[in-house]
Write a structure and sequence with these properties.
202 residues; alpha+beta; Alpha-Beta Plaits
């Protein structure tokens, strides 16, 4: 069963208003939905992602200044990318002040997209995002497990605890339909595994 663009706008406007937004700003916007929904996709599920990173030094250390200075710019690019729907935010427009783990040097990024193609396009093809990814070794330690993807029924927004559970699923069982990666992706429920999406950014 397909879902109209207007239905998406109405749904995300309700979510936006319920979290303190105002009617003067569209939480999704035409540019974010039309390229995906207009293609006639059956939108029964959305794609959630969590991405974590551990700073080498506390975020306030001057060595992290370039990363912090670019956060707002990169987040704005994500917000206006085709297929983007939502991202986790704390005070100040990013999620860097949200401590999701015992280690205070671990930061978390969570977002919701219309599908794999939309998220992959921003992650691996957006020049500004790639620029930051290529410099990540300057700021972050290498982590064996730092990202997972999973499908959610439309109308459900992911929580931090749910996202941490998905990370643990991936750690214990490897990529499955319940928790997977770009290199071992799964389509929405009922569609099975998909061809790998490159995760190389260098």
């Amino acid at each position: 069963m397909g879902t109209s663009v207007e239905a998406y706008r109405n749904y995300w406007t309700v979510i936006h208003l319920s979290h303190g937004g105002n009617t003067g700003s569209n939480p999704v916007g035409d540019a974010k939905l039309n390229p995906i929904i207009g293609a006639g996709m059956d939108q029964t599920y959305h794609l959630a992602q969590i991405n974590i990173a551990r700073f080498r030094r506390p975020i306030s250390d001057p060595v992290n200044a370039d990363f912090v200075a670019n956060l707002d710019r990169v987040n704005r690019l994500a917000d206006t990318s085709p297929g983007f729907l939502w991202r986790l935010m704390g005070n100040g427009g990013s999620a860097t002040d949200i401590q999701a783990f015992d280690d205070p040097n671990i930061i978390v990024n969570m977002s919701l997209w219309t599908g794999l193609e939309a998220l992959a396009a921003f992650t691996y093809k957006n020049p500004a995002h790639l620029e930051i990814m290529r410099r990540r070794k300057e700021w972050f330690e290498k982590m064996e497990l730092y990202m997972t993807l999973w499908w959610l029924p439309i109308g459900h927004r992911p929580t931090i605890s749910e996202a941490k559970e998905r990370l643990e699923m991936l750690r214990r069982h490897g990529p499955t339909a319940d928790a997977f990666t770009f290199s071992h992706p799964f389509g929405a429920p009922g569609t099975g595994a998909q061809a790998p999406i490159t995760d190389r950014c260098a």
